[in-house]
UniProtKB/TrEMBL annotation:
Entry GO MF terms: proton-transporting ATP synthase activity, rotational mechanism
Recorded GO CC terms: proton-transporting ATP synthase complex
Protein name: ATP synthase subunit delta', mitochondrial
CDD domains linked to this entry: F1-ATPase_delta
Gene3D superfamilies the UniProt entry points to: ATP synthase delta/epsilon subunit, C-terminal domain, F0F1 ATP synthase delta/epsilon subunit, N-terminal
Amino acid sequence: MVIVPATTGQMGAELKPGVLSVHEGNETSKYFVSSGFVFIHANSFADIIAVEALPLHQIDANLVQKGLAEFTQKLSSATTDLEKAKAQIGIDVHSAFNSALTG
């Protein structure tokens, strides 16, 4: 987390992959964000800048499991550092999706 002190009382934080909940009155919308930043202002308003954001209900749990299995297999059979890195990124992304879906 990064906190930026300022005379206006603003602060900011880096977002990690996961679920972002937006509350408006009695409504709550949930999004999966890949990364980004949030800036909270002195008046309690927040600006959210996400690299990618997807409504949580649009993520297919079956495809997440399939992708996780696929990239796990790719990692076990990888022979070069590049293949290993690509497979690990796939595992990390699908693991983050899975964690978001399972709460």
